[in-house]
Amino acid sequence: DAKTTQPPSMDCAEGRAANLPCNHSTISGNEYVYWYRQIHSQGPQYIIHGLKNNETNEMASLIITEDRKSSTLILPHATLRDTAVYYCIVRVGNNAGNMLTFGGGTRLMVKP
Amino acid sequence: GAGVSQSPSNKVTEKGKDVELRCDPISGHTALYWYRQSLGQGLEFLIYFQGNSAPDKSGLPSDRFSAERTGGSVSTLTIQRTQQEDSAVYLCASSLALNTEAFFGQGTRLTVV
Q1: Are A92 and A99 in contact (CB under 8 A)?
Q2: Distances in Å between the alpha carbon of A46 and those of A36, A38, A91, B107?
Q3: Distance between CA atoms of residues B94 and B34, nearest Å
Q4: Of B35, B43, B101, the CB nearest to A46
Q5: Nearest-CA neighbor of A32 among A51, A59, A18, A55?
Q6: Which of A49, A43, A97 has its CA nearest to residue B36?
Q7: Average pLDDT over every residue of A28-51
Q8: Of the candidates B43, B102, B106, which has its C-beta nearest A98's C-beta?
Q9: What pLDDT does A98 receive?
């Protein structure tokens, strides 16, 4: 399994962009990068995923480097409600399917 | 329903008793996953169902843990002879198919006393 490395914590000012990095240097060609977040006492929430192209949805943007060894999740205008633990996950690429292995994540604190 | 539903939301049980945790996935989702999260820890994969295939049980921590999925929909996670170290939040997720995102329920908080 490709493992991911994320900083344990980050701060961001409300209204500013939050850029959360993730390293996945051992990712293989058929593995996707997924981002989830977990707000305190709730189940994980899907944010976005991608293979090699940059992706954008209503929640965030995902920037994947050309060599796919790292990615950045961007929350363009962070709000206090975005305070959560953000997990960068690489999907296990086998025929058994879509099992997700979670690491420690980044605890993002959005401050007023 | 609109999302993954788990019941009960909270369960307190005595050490040595058996417990059953239920998960109702999103309608039409063929894949279903169970995870657990101990206090202050990350998510630990337990078991995975995909369609009618045999489940991937590689994450179950001991033979006291078992899960089934009847009719390709509702799943039940059973923990026999519960121990205090089984105390955790048990999360269920489902996804539409292979290579699609998984959606999580709110979890069942299990406390073994």
Answers
A1: yes
A2: 5, 9, 13, 15
A3: 9
A4: B101
A5: A51
A6: A43
A7: 84
A8: B102
A9: 47
